[in-house]
Amino acid sequence: MRLVGVSRHPDQQEIQSYRPGGFTISGRRFRGSVAVFEDRVEAWEVADPAALEVRHLLRFREVEPPVDLLLLGLGVGFAVPAPAVLRALAEWRLPFELMSTAAACRTFNLLLSEGRRVAAALIALPEGGADR
To answer: What's the helix, strand, coil split of the chain in %, to 5?
Structure first.
């Protein structure tokens, strides 16, 4: 799905579209899941919400300055990570929201346009579906 742009700073990332198997962010196409920060995008090795482990989230804990909110886009629908993952996020005092990948893409752009320090962990949609 193509997302309507909101006003942003030129150095900030903008999720422009998501599709089965990847994303277009600030004019660049990414295959697979991604970790999106205000100033950069990194490959993220999680392809299934059931496979999400604490080690996959360490990069979000270590970012400086800390983020106000981590958006966890967990695929097509809503999913709840393992209790150990939720416990670690609480212990780190890292505010987070669980949502579908589509909702996380839209929310990331909106919060960034409002000046919030936001990051997103986005699981790519399964291949074989329609572009969005």
So the answer is: 25, 25, 45
CA 101 to chain centre: 7
Q: Count of alpha carbons within 13 Å of 123, Cβ hemisphere only?
A: 22
Could you report the per-residue pLDDT of 41-91, keeping only the tens digit for each? 999 999 999 999 999 999 999 999 999 999 999 999 889 999 999 999 999
CA distance 34 to 123: 7
Q: Is residue 9 very low, low, confident or very high in pLDDT (cuts 50, 70, 90)?
A: low
Using an 8 Å Cβ cutoff, are 56 and 45 in contact? yes
Query: What's the start-to-end Cα distance of the chain, in Å?
Result: 2
Average pLDDT over residues 3-28: 82
In a domain, 98, yes or no: yes
129 inside domain: no
Q: How far is CA 106 from CA 17, 18, 50, 80, 102, in A?
A: 9, 10, 23, 20, 7
Number of structural domains, the chain? 1
